[in-house]
Amino acid sequence: MITAVGDVMRACYARGWITTRDGNASVRRGKSKFLHITPSAWRKNVIFPELMIRMEFDKDNNLVIPPGKNPSGELHMHWLLQKDIKKTRAVVHAHPTHVVATMYRGFDLQKVCTQFPEIFRYTRVGGLVGPLPATSKQLGEATSKALGLGADGSLKFDIVGQSNHGVTAVASDPWSAYEHIERLDHICEIILKSGVSPEEVENKPKVFFS
Ligand SMILES: [Zn+2]
User: Fold this and answer.
1) What is the 164 CA–ligand 1 centroid distance (Å)?
2) Which pLDDT value is given to residue 67?
3) Is 0.90 topped by the overall pTM?
């Protein structure tokens, strides 16, 4: 599981979804006291298990930063999404090119997904997170809200887009989170290559319904 985090970050890098020091990911096994998270500013194409930072949840469910360690700047977002889980969860944040371009062009990702079964059937896309500064608490809170985070740690969606920035995907393991990003990026690439405008998609009837 922890090895898979490095594999996923390398795959994200190979696809151009992150530049060398971008992106971050965490994993927590169900009910474990520990969260494993990528280090800040480290080259994500060379993440190996021994480089992952292991952080412990204290009695108040806060994360303790080990001395001398520098966890991801998006730690607050990972903490929010991992603190109340019942089952194993992986959280992956990346900047997939076609998704970011699609949001920047003004498309509504949820509306786009009503047009294509390949994403609709397997990946639940939440509402858009507005443009917020990277590594800010506001970004973590808006992302958790858009994912439909409940008090019991449950989520209503698998992935959300963050305007002018990227996506955060959540699943039971790192590769499943990667697949949510891959499906959404593929659909966004199709949309952009079709030449359709955001207004045209807005006016198209829903083909697939939730
Ligand atoms: Zn980012």
Assistant:
1) 10
2) 94
3) yes
